[in-house]
Amino acid sequence: MNDSVFTQLLDLACGAFLLAAVAVLWLRQLTSIVRAFAFQGVALAAVAALLGLREGRGELLAVAAGVGLLRAGALPHLMRRVLAASRPGDGGGRYEEDVSEARETRPLVNVAASLLSAALLTFLAYAVARPLVALDPTPATRALPVALAVVLIGFFTLVTRRRALAQVVGFLLLDNGITATAFLAASGVPLIVELGVSFDVLLAVLVLQILTTRMRAAFGGTGIDDLRELRDR
Amino acid sequence: MNGIGTAAVAAQVTLVVVGAPLLTGVMRKVRARLEGRAGAAVTQPWRDLRKLLRKEAITPLGTGPAFRAAPPLLVATTAVVAALVPLVSTTTPVSRRADLILVVALLGLGTVAVALAGLDTGTAFGGMGASRQMTVAALVEPTILLAVFALSMPTGSTNLSAIVTGGLHDPVRLASPAGLLATAALAVAVLAETGRLPVDNPATHLELTMVHEATALEFAGPDLALVELGTQMRLTVLLGLLASLSAPWGIATTTTPLALALALAVLTAKVALLGAALAAAEVFWAKLRLFRVPELLAGSFLLAVLAVTASYFLTGE
């Protein structure tokens, strides 16, 4: 793989990675948000695989495969199960509540404003990453701002969305961004650390899934605003 | 060389004027077929125009020069844009002046003229349509300018011919993240600018949903013919511009009659294909609520911003 093709493919993968994060902010249907997240997992795996191919490290390719399986396969599958559990299904009766459950109806910041904020966050990421890029301007480090922008957009999603599932996606965006930063800045962390992080994320999502189910059982919805009793005083 | 270049400009303008109603006819036909109707003939828009042109010119009481000047102004600005944009050839006598910002400004002039005419009639619909049209135009403008900025960065010039020639010589540029994002942002902007679904429904006459139709409501006879022709020409020119920027293959860079003829055929095919694809997509789209339109346009603005940042940072200074 020669230089220009590698740069081109890496740029494309990073562009898709950022675009998926933006799509999460743009979309309202939770199913579409989960799909965008799965697409981002594929892009992240592609970034890792490209770096692995470039440096001829089999270990990085294995990590790429693992990242792809976890973030484009397992995690979206878990989230779809949570969504499916909240569908009207056979029960009927609870129709009105479930409609509001399938979409992010009223985020704290409206969609147009959050898209503009995403633009500002991207600029911020570029501004912050400039000194880092200047240290060693290779194609991979030059894409570093993209990963930082995804971290910031993930934070933003986490803060402004009301549905528990949308917040989970925000948390995972944040994690995707951190992983991408590791890949782009240092060609990945040691395998054992990567494994630990991946299992951590999986465990967190499992716990959040159970928490969401319990929340629905207790309140009939996953609007975080209803959780007044749990507030820290 | 000059003779062929002038011929290319003339061919471009003629093709746009003659082809625009036919393109609308093709799009309506595709839509009708997909909906299970037979649909009118492809030449029907031309017959409508002929019928309207034969009628007597009527202007509503109390309207002033803004109302009368709007239809010719709309057609004239679009014709100038059709001459400037490198649809067929990149080496024409006017190609040095084919600045993308000038093109956007000319299109904006046409929009403003029609909106002023809508205001001038003094009817409720005209004013409402004008206000909506200006809202959309104000949101589209920054998107187009940013997308243009992203496209012009690798070339170092906002000259359209230079951008298209650069794309022809360096196809990698078209597939870069910046190029793709800018093309996507431009596509949304073109949809909004020409009043197609999902921003506006060109087939409706329902007062609550229309944007462009509301401003054109009071026109009759030859004026209405000009407004319709102008709208169709805008769609054709913008689709052609999108095709030239995203897939410049086939555009003549030399001044031989053969290359020119080939470029004309390729342009017709590209625009017809884009139009048919748009019509097919419109069957599956619903019109967005007016209050959701800013969301869509903010999204395309973000795409344009990302295109600029990507072209500046990713590919290196």
Automatic annotation (TrEMBL), chain A:
EC number: 1.-.-.-
Keywords: Cell membrane, Membrane, Oxidoreductase, Transmembrane, Transmembrane helix
Enzyme class label: oxidoreductase
InterPro entries linked to this entry: HyfE-like
Primary location recorded for the protein, binned into one broad class: membrane
Residues forming coiled coils: none
Molecular function per GO: oxidoreductase activity
Bilayer-crossing regions: 6-27, 108-128, 140-158, 165-185, 191-211
Topology term for the membrane: Multi-pass membrane protein
Domain of life the protein comes from: Bacteria
Membrane among keywords: yes
Record localization: Cell membrane
Keyword Iron-sulfur found: no
GO CC term, one of those recorded: plasma membrane
Record's protein name: Hydrogenase-4 component E
Automatic annotation (TrEMBL), chain B:
UniProt membrane topology term: Multi-pass membrane protein
Keyword flag Transmembrane helix: yes
Transmembrane region(s): 6-27, 100-122, 134-154, 174-192, 235-252, 258-284, 296-314
Coiled coil: none
Domain of life: Bacteria
Gene Ontology cellular-component annotations: plasma membrane
Key words, A-Z: Lyase, Membrane, Transmembrane, Transmembrane helix
Any GO molecular function: lyase activity
Chief subcellular location: membrane
Pfam families found in the cross-reference section: NADHdh
Localisation: Membrane
Entry keyword Lyase: yes
PANTHER family attached to this UniProt entry: FORMATE HYDROGENLYASE SUBUNIT 4, FORMATE HYDROGENLYASE SUBUNIT 4-RELATED
Protein name per Swiss-Prot or TrEMBL: Formate hydrogenlyase
Organism: Streptomyces eurocidicus (Streptoverticillium eurocidicus)
